[in-house]
């Protein structure tokens, strides 16, 4: 009867929009007591919009938009897509130049050459790692954008900070309900993100999470999961990005958003086909019910 019950459980999962890698996954699903949620693209829509452009003295805003937009056009990051789309719109639909070269620096931003300039777009650390100072004026613009709950990225070229872009993303409609549903099943929700502390705290408050890990580099997301496991917790993690893949694989149970990247899906035990966070609670309920019928 055991294999039959597991097959029924797996089939029922498919109906709910949950793809289960193998029947043994139901056991780890049942045991989970902690659920780590990636922020961008998991709790929030991941669809960001360029809201503010701050330009350093003596810099033309159109140059900031054109060079940053051109570089970000080559990246799939949600911030990059917002910057490229926002730049095109603010430049009245002008075609952005094609970068001569482009490098994605995971968790920090992008670097490349546009119109002969070495351009960087990303976190302040991307600049400091390259030995480029952040003038007081740019630091103030950055702090102001973050205080408004935005993710702020700095634009630099030819070794000088030239602008600060503020982008924002909205919490998904069902996220607060999904978190409440997980709590009702006895799980402790935790928010994990590479984004800044102010944005992370604002999102956590909005959805009802009180444990937050912010400004975590992609490779350090794994360490957060391991630390929680070392406390004796059974950790489930939900994520969507390439930057979540290692942590999803390390977690006792990895859940990928079906709307996310292939890397996240491949690293996970379960896929939430429609990218609906509320289905996480359905998966846990299903595993508990399926295994209860076996025992
Ligand atoms: P998350 O964990 O929220 O999905 P990431 O680890 O992908 O975030 O990125 C962390 C931070 O690195 C972003 O909030 C942003 O400041 C910076 N960053 C990453 N990629 C880019 C990019 N393409 N352009 C600008 N900034 C970026
Ligand atoms: Mg993400």
TrEMBL record:
Organism: Kitasatospora albolonga
Interval of the full protein contained in this chain: 492 to 786 of 835
Domain of life of the organism encoding this protein: Bacteria
Recorded family membership: Belongs to the cation transport ATPase (P-type) (TC 3.A.3) family. Type IB subfamily.
Subcellular localization: Cell membrane
Protein name: Cation-transporting P-type ATPase B
């Amino acid at each position: 009867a055991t294999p039959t019950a597991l097959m029924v459980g797996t089939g029922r999962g498919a109906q709910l929009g949950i793809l289960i890698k193998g029947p043994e996954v139901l056991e780890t699903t049942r045991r989970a007591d902690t659920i780590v949620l990636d922020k961008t693209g998991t709790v929030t829509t991941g669809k960001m919009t360029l809201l503010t452009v701050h330009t350093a003295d003596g810099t033309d805003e159109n140059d900031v938009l054109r060079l940053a937009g051109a570089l970000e056009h080559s990246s799939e990051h949600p911030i990059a897509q917002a910057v490229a789309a926002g730049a095109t719109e603010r430049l009245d639909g002008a075609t952005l130049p094609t970068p001569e070269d482009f490098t994605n620096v995971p968790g920090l931003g992008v670097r490349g050459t546009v119109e002969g300039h070495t351009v960087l777009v990303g976190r302040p650390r991307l600049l400091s790692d390259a030995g480029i100072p952040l003038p007081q004026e740019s630091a103030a613009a950055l702090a102001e954008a973050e205080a408004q709950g935005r993710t702020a990225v700095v634009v630099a070229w030819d070794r000088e900070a030239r602008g600060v872009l503020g982008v924002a993303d909205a919490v998904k409609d069902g996220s607060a309900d999904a978190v409440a549903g997980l709590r009702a099943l006895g799980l402790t929700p935790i928010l994990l993100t590479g984004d800044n502390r102010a944005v992370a705290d604002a999102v956590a408050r909005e959805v009802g999470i009180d444990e937050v890990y912010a400004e975590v580099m992609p490779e350090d997301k794994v360490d957060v999961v391991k630390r929680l496991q070392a406390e004796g917790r059974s950790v489930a993690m939900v994520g969507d990005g390439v930057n979540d893949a290692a942590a999803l694989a390390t977690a006792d149970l990895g859940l990928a958003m079906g709307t996310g990247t292939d890397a996240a899906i491949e690293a996970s035990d379960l896929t939430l086909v429609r990218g609906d966070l509320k289905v996480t609670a359905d998966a846990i309920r299903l595993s508990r019910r399926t295994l209860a019928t076996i025992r």
